[in-house]
């Protein structure tokens, strides 16, 4: 009976995730159209931070409880999932065009953040409170650069005409309804993610799967389900900039903001396994960057390849642990 209830809660969690992502994308798209904000910027800020609520909750709670290594494992594991599965699965549904700013600035910045984790791990072995403040400062700089980029960008007449045509086809909701959609979507995503993670963990334990493996797979993948749901929905709704911006923005938010907050609360230790996983994240990031650099897009074959690489990584951590 208990297992039946757990399965029901798992299904409810998935429904909340999917519908929450649907509402969240619609609300964010309407907000972007209303204030003429590029979808990429919305994806990298509001959407990215909203879908990273589960990671923030897990990492901060772990830090307060003194289990701060989980904060690093959760963030790095979630980032690898975001990069390879979220973008890969979205590309399978629809070819993801990638803007020059993502290729030249945002992806390299996310690689820099991961490299920072490796360097700190190899030198001091922990992210102390000072480094936590530095991380938060870097994140503030990233947000400022996104806003500055939007304020100073100039579109061609053809791009403006295309935007106006899209705006006419897209129903812009009243601001109050847009806020309800965004806030309601975040709430549904948050609680949906919690239900999926908790239910999956109970099912895994009932099947005799180790807690270490649960932490590396279910917690990291489960907390990234909002990004997966949101990006796939965005890709299907042809909000391709938002799909890419959500994944890349979430990775930067996870590494700098979430680890920064966790480290300010309690210094976060970085293990050898964390360093190895961070190196894997950097390698995967370079692979995705090469895909984007070559064709300015992530196409279906690349999407399948990215998912296959993630499966290989899962096999590796299962053998390692």
TrEMBL record:
UniProt cross-references to InterPro entries, sorted A to Z: K/Na/Ca-exchanger, NaCa_Exmemb, NCX_ion-bd_dom_sf
A cellular component term, taken from the record's GO annotations: plasma membrane
GO BP field: intracellular calcium ion homeostasis
Domain spans labelled Sodium/calcium exchanger membrane region: 7-146, 179-317
GO molecular-function term, one example from the UniProt record: calcium, potassium:sodium antiporter activity
Segment forming the signal sequence: none
Membrane topology label: Multi-pass membrane protein
Transmembrane segments: 80-98, 107-124, 130-147, 175-193, 213-235, 247-269, 275-293, 302-319
Pfam family of the protein (one): Na_Ca_ex
Classification via Gene3D superfamilies: NCX, central ion-binding region
Keywords: Membrane, Transmembrane, Transmembrane helix
Annotated protein name in UniProt: Calcium/sodium antiporter
Native source species: Candidatus Weimeria bifida
Organism ancestry: Bacteria, Bacillati, Bacillota, Clostridia, Lachnospirales
């Amino acid at each position: 009976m208990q297992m039946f209830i757990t399965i029901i809660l798992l299904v409810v969690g998935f429904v909340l995730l999917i519908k929450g992502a649907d509402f969240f994308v619609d609300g964010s798209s309407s907000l972007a159209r209303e204030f003429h904000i590029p979808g990429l910027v919305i994806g990298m800020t509001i959407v990215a931070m909203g879908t990273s609520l589960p990671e923030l909750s897990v990492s901060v709670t772990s830090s307060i409880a003194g289990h701060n290594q989980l904060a690093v494992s959760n963030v790095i594991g979630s980032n690898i999932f975001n990069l390879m599965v979220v973008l890969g699965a979205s590309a399978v549904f629809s070819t993801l065009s990638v803007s020059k700013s993502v290729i030249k600035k945002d992806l390299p910045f996310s690689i820099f953040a991961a490299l920072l984790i490796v360097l700190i791990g190899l030198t001091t072995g922990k992210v102390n409170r000072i480094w936590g403040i530095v991380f938060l400062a870097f994140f503030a700089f990233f947000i400022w650069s996104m806003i500055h980029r939007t304020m100073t960008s100039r579109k061609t007449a053809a791009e403006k005409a295309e935007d106006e045509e899209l705006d006419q086809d897209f129903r812009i909701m009243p601001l109050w309804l847009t806020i309800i959609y965004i806030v309601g979507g975040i709430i549904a995503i948050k609680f949906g993610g919690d239900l999926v993670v908790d239910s999956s963990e109970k099912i895994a334990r009932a099947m005799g799967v180790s807690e270490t493996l649960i932490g590396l797979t279910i917690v990291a993948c489960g907390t990234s389900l909002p990004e997966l749901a949101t990006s796939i929905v965005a890709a299907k709704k042809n909000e391709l900039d938002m799909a890419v911006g959500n994944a890349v923005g979430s990775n930067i938010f996870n590494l700098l903001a979430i680890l920064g907050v966790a480290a300010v609360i309690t210094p976060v230790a970085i293990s050898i396994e964390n360093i190895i996983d961070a190196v894997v994240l950097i390698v995967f990031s370079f692979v995705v960057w090469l895909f984007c650099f070559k064709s300015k897009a992530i196409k279906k074959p690349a999407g399948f390849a990215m998912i296959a690489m993630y499966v290989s990584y899962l096999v590796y951590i299962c053998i390692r642990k």
